[in-house]
């Protein structure tokens, strides 16, 4: 009985030592009394207590010997193959082969095994070991010959599958009783008990070693074919798959007994093995890893990512990752790095081409995280995290003269994944986490700082982006001085151009109220451009075009920020020249956008018609950018094409609404609005389309022509593989990076701001056409839109914004105000044309100004107000040109854009009906169309000084959206409106959750509504709206400007002056506050000589303003001329008023800088 116990015990010890692959261990087993045993002693005791199995011990001894000879060492890392693995090569080379100095010893072992063939001809284990020796000695053909002698080897799945099939179908696996004295028919059979119900993972029953032999033999068969017939990749892959298909069963059986480490990391010390599933089955994992790795490499050359075998590739990646959960990070780190790179590369390439990732891959990553939506981006991030753990354990901070290339390559892969996901600001956080980690394992790696600059800007950390840019320039610049190449010239130039434009954007968006003007950023951008020119390839038209574009933008920003009246015109003229030269080399939507802005500025080359044409070209080249639509609408309105402006603005708003709705409610089947995004299928859509394998169209670029994009689904699929057929090494990760775009995609907050600004312009246009009283419903819609878009505070915002606005509007909808009643009656008179609109003003920051005082016009050439309203008989009217003439004039206006908009719709995007309805809404309801003719808004005194027939002139607020003549509103009719309810104070939650920018936008929205109320005579409602604006942003100087206008409307001149001074105290460079204060002082000066001292003050303030930020504001020049006239300086008065008249021509609805921005 004791003997029977010992033979079972030493069977188990031998199987455990073989399965663990402890070939180099001095004590791979223990005696029955716990004494450590060497390999020699283990085999001696096995032969002593297990009679009749001498062949088993002989095969075990030769297996250990071959493993040590192949590894050329006895350490675990050498046995794992890390020391001899060439990570730069994907070829087999010397893997699993004996080095030349050990070939004779291996040949001797081989001869001993061949001598056993005659006595043990039925032993499959012997044949499998002979095949291993033949391959290790460099004879793959002989290896295949031995493998063919093994029965049913190709049916690896049957051998490794359910135990019933193993027992019933494979005679070679029938085991002898341990008490039988005869030799085993098969080594595998001797290790597997027929009566056992254990799984493959059970070591004591021998099934684990049986699985190892099968996996090893199939792997050797595939590797032999790779050497003999490397071009027959389909056959090679099919061989690997025979074993790979059964691996899930093996892994599942092992996991049931020994769950894997979910953290993929050692618990203590480098490479510490905390999971027994690895230590007990190390030899199995060695061959499993090798088999899957070779299968993935072959499949990467064979399987197309948009072909029928794509699912095979994803299944192999999933199996590899599942098995790697049992491995510590130090196990075959180089080998796993190769697979990680291929996996990430496959995900990035798949995101750029048609085809959905199979559901099996999503199911694999959904395990243990059922509550988290699984997208392709989520998958990529998890694979990257696994790779990061591997590099953490296998790499170190570089020594002098060294580089941690793997970590640097990982940063490229991360950015490539981020780009494939659309470069979204919301996804930048995890990329930044990887980049910060990379700085701890690299030393002054330029590419790390290059990526950090771009990603941190996208995340909103502009301070970090600026520091990263400066570090990048310093590192690469010093390396260049030392004649070391760290970055290619093209990358250096592209990065510096991006950085210069980033600084230009920062210079324009700085908060001037804090005293920071942004001029330092603008000057630094100029220095960076000079450095980029030093390494610019002038023969490269693309680079030259981008350089000229960046220079043109920089000159524009310098003209704005420098505020030097001596150099301003020359800078703007040079900017226009550079921008036009840029489109000669390479047309781009960005260049056309900036040219349109430049052509509208008051410079010698000003041309409104060309500005409109360039804005149309920008829309056609990049139709998804609503800022281009917005600019086109503003320019069309400035050129008096009211119908075209309305259609374009409606189209831009429709595109924004559709994109937002698509983001909130993705289409079934994984169709998402952003064709560039990596997350093409979510967990929910994956479950809903389990039997379908469809994919959305993927245009190559959003800036392509619409016709090209609309037919992308009709083109034959291009065969896309991870590796080229002849690829022998991993391609550089930098190849996956997209060229730097012209400008970064807008963040969520920026998209919201752009959409809000467009709707504010729509309100301006609506008030221009319908008058202040006709826009109340539109204002409610805009506040509701704001509440729906603002995010997590959505429900509460409806209460604090929309309902608050309704409190001011609701009482007014129940009755007609004192002022609006006669106006409505007048509108219905026989002489009233439906296209006529009331005079309407706005100021430079988009906030309404006061209602004008109607003054009769008597000039020969009818004078018009700033919106084109002709003053007749004390009332404001718009002259109307012949409708047929206007139709002929603008026959083609907007047609190309509408046609382009229809052609660009993809099969998956049903935009035509929605946009068509919105474009047509409100158009055609008035006879003769909406084409309104407008001339300049010219003050009466200006006509007198310029020796022109006098006409009435109404000055408006600088906050007016279109033209802004500044005049007192003391004569404004003030109805007795009911007092509004007290405005609610902003809650703590609102202040906490809203960003500063969002609070400012909401404050400006309230101020615009306040101006509308004031112009419509609802003065108390205007006060309430101003209070709401102040609650949202107490630091907004425009609140005090509007309060000053409110007091001006009531005739409280002293309070108005105090309010304007308060605005200047908050922001000394406030243009509207300065102009309105000057207007108030001049009005007081007319009342008595005691106020004449203020005229000199006004002249000084406006002289400084017109040389600085208010140089293009006609009201500033007008009141400066008035001040000079009151001082007796008639020549200077005439000069200022003439310049004001020129600026008043072609003014847009709103200031460009506030509405669309001066640069992208």
Write structural notes for this entry.
The chain has 1160 residues and is mainly α. The protein is 58% helix and 1% strand. It contains 51 helices and 6 strands. The strands form 3 sheets. It has a two-stranded antiparallel sheet. Strand 1 and strand 2 form a beta hairpin. It starts with a helix and ends in a 5-residue tail after the last helix.
Rg, alpha carbons: 39 Å
Q: What is the count of DSSP helices, taking H or I runs of 4+ residues?
A: 51
Shape descriptor: elongated
Report low-confidence residues grouped into runs of 5 or more: 156-197, 263-273, 667-715, 792-799, 812-893, 904-993
Largest sheet: 2 strands, antiparallel
| Secondary-structure-derived class | mainly alpha
Helix content: 55-70%
Side-by-side strand order of the widest sheet: 1-2
Mean pLDDT: 75
State the end-to-end distance: 88 Å
Portion in strands: under 5%
Number of E-state strands: 6
């Amino acid at each position: 009985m004791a003997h029977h116990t010992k033979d079972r015990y030493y069977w188990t010890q031998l199987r455990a030592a073989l399965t663990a692959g402890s070939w180099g261990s001095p004590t791979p087993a223990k005696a029955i009394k716990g004494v450590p045993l060497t390999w020699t002693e283990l085999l001696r005791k096995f032969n002593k207590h297990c009679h009749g199995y001498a062949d088993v011990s002989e095969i075990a001894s030769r297996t250990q010997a071959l493993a040590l000879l192949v590894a050329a060492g006895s350490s675990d890392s050498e046995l794992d193959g890390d020391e001899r693995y060439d990570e730069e090569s994907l070829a087999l080379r010397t893997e699993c082969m004996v080095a030349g100095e050990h070939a004779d010893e291996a040949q001797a072992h081989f001869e001993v095994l061949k001598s056993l063939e005659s006595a043990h001809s039925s032993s499959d284990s012997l044949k499998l070991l002979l095949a291993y020796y033949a391959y290790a000695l460099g004879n793959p053909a002989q290896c295949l010959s031995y493998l063919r002698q093994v029965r049913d080897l190709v049916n690896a799945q049957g051998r490794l599958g359910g135990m019933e099939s193993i027992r019933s179908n494979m005679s070679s696996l029938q085991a002898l009783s341990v008490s039988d004295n005869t030799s085993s028919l098969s080594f595998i059979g001797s290790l597997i008990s027929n009566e056992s119900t254990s799984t493959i993972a059970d070591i004591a029953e021998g099934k684990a070693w049986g699985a190892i032999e099968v996996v090893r033999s199939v792997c050797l068969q595939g590797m032999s074919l790779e050497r003999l017939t490397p071009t027959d990749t389909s056959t090679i892959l099919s061989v690997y798959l025979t074993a790979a298909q059964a691996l899930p069963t093996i892994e599942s059986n092992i996991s049931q007994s020994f769950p894997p480490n979910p953290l993929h990391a050692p618990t203590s010390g480098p490479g510490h093995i905390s999971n027994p599933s690895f230590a007990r089955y190390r030899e199995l994992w060695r061959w499993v890893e090798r088999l899957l790795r070779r299968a993935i490499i072959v499949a990467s050359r064979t399987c197309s990512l948009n072909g029928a075998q794509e699912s095979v590739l994803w299944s192999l990646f999933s199996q590899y990752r599942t098995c790697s959960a049992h491995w510590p990070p130090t196990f075959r780190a180089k080998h796993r790095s190769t697979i990680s790179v291929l996996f990430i590369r496959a995900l990035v390439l798949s995101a750029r081409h048609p085809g959905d990732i199979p559901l099996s891959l999503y199911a694999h990553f959904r395990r243990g995280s059922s509550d988290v939506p699984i997208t392709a981006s989520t998958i990529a991030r998890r694979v990257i995290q696994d790779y990061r753990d591997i590099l953490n354990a296998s790499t170190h901070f570089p020594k002098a003269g060294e580089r941690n290339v793997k970590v640097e390559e990982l940063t490229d892969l991360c950015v490539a994944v981020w780009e494939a996901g659309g470069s979204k600001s919301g996804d930048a956080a995890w990329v930044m986490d990887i980049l910060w980690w990379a700085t701890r394992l690299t030393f002054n790696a330029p590419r790390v700082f290059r990526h950090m600059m771009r990603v941190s800007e996208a995340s909103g950390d502009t301070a970090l982006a600026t520091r990263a840019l400066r570090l990048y320039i310093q590192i690469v610049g010093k390396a260049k001085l030392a004649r070391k190449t760290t970055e290619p010239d093209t990358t250096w130039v592209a990065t510096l151009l991006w950085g210069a434009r980033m600084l230009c954007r920062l210079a324009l968006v700085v908060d001037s109220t804090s005293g920071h003007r942004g001029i330092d950023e603008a000057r630094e951008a100029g220095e960076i451009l000079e450095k980029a020119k030093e390494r610019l390839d002038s023969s490269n038209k693309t680079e030259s075009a981008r350089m000229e574009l960046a220079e043109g933008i920089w000159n524009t920003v310098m003209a704005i920020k420098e505020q030097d009246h001596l150099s301003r015109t020359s800078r703007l003229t040079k900017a226009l020249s550079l921008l036009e030269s840029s489109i000669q080399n390479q047309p781009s939507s960005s260049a056309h956008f900036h040219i349109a802005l430049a052509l509208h500025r008051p410079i010698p080359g000003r041309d409104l018609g060309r500005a409109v044409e360039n804005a149309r070209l920008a829309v056609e080249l990049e139709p998804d950018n609503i800022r281009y639509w917005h600019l086109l609408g503003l320019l069309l309105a400035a050129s008096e094409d009211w119908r075209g402006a309305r259609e374009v603005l409606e189209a831009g708003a429709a595109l924004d609404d559709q994109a937002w709705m698509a983001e909130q409610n993705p289409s079934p089947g994984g169709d998402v609005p952003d064709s560039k995004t990596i997350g093409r299928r979510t967990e929910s859509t994956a479950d809903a389309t389990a039997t379908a394998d469809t994919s959305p169209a993927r245009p190559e670029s959003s800036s392509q022509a619409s016709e090209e994009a609309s037919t992308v689904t009709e083109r034959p699929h291009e065969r896309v593989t991870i590796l080229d057929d002849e690829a022998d090494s991993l391609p550089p990760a930098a190849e996956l990076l997209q060229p730097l775009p012209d400008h970064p995609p807008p963040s969520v907050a920026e998209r919201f701001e752009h959409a809000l600004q467009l709707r504010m312009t729509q309100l301006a246009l609506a008030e221009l056409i319908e008058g202040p009283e006709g826009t109340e419903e539109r204002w409610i819609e805009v506040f509701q839109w704001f509440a729906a878009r603002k995010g997590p505070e959505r429900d509460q915002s409806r209460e604090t914004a929309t309902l608050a606005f309704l409190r001011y509007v609701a009482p007014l909808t129940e009755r007609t105000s004192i002022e609006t009643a006669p106006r409505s009656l007048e509108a219905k008179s026989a002489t009233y044309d439906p296209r006529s609109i009331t005079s309407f003003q706005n100021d430079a920051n988009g906030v309404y100004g006061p209602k004008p005082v109607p003054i009769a016009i008597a000039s020969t050439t009818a004078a018009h107000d700033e919106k084109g309203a002709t003053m007749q008989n004390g009332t404001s009217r718009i002259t109307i040109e012949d409708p047929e003439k206007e139709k002929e004039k603008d026959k083609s206006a907007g047609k190309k854009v509408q046609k382009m908009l229809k052609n660009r719709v993809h099969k998956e995007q049903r935009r035509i009906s929605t946009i068509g309805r919105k474009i047509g809404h409100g158009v055609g309801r008035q006879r003769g169309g909406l084409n309104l003719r407008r001339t300049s808004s010219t003050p009466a005194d200006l006509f007198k000084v310029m020796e022109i027939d006098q006409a009435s002139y109404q000055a408006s607020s600088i906050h007016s959206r279109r033209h802004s003549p500044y005049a007192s509103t003391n004569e404004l009719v003030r109805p007795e409106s009911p007092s509004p309810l007290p405005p609610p104070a902003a809650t703590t939650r609102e202040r906490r959750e809203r960003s500063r920018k969002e609070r400012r936008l909401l404050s400006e929205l309230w101020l615009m509504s306040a101006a509308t109320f004031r112009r419509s005579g609802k003065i108390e409602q205007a006060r309430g709206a101003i209070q709401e604006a102040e609650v949202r942003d107490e630091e907004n100087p425009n609140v005090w400007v509007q309060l000053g206008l409110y007091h001006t409307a009531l005739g409280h001149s002293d309070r108005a002056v105090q309010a304007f001074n308060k605005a200047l105290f908050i922001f000394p460079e406030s243009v509207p506050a300065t102009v309105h204060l000057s207007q108030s002082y001049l009005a007081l000066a007319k009342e008595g000589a005691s106020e004449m001292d203020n005229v000199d003050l006004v002249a000084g303030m406006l002289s400084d303003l017109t040389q600085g930020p208010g140089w293009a504001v006609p009201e500033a020049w007008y009141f400066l001329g008035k001040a000079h006239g009151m001082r007796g300086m008639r020549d200077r008065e005439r000069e200022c008023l003439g310049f004001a008249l020129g600026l008043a021509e072609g003014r847009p609805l709103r200031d460009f800088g506030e509405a669309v921005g001066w640069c992208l």
